[in-house]
Amino acid sequence: MANYSNKKLVPEAMSALDKFKYEVASEVGVNLKDGYNGDISARDAGKIGGNMVRKMIQQVEQQMK
To answer: How far apart are CA 54 and CA 49, in angstroms?
Structure first.
């Protein structure tokens, strides 16, 4: 049986990731509200998450050079 957990590995990073999420959302033109955002489309949520991952990968690649 699989053991899934939403436990954060670095809880202190949550505020930085939240700020990053709002920054990326504004860049891709998605308006996020403080608090609940369950009314945004899956496409918009995917834009935000995909761009967050893309930017994090770019940052790590820059650090590796």
So the answer is: 9
What are the tens digits of pLDDT across the range 3-62? 666 777 888 888 899 999 999 999 999 999 988 999 999 999 999 999 999 999 999 999
SS3 36: coil
- Name the token pair of 16: 């930085």
Whether residue 43 is contained in a domain is answered as yes
Domain that holds residue 44: 11-64
Residue 1, domain member (yes or no): no
With left for phi above 0 and alpha for psi between -120 and 50, is residue 62 left, alpha or beta?
A: alpha
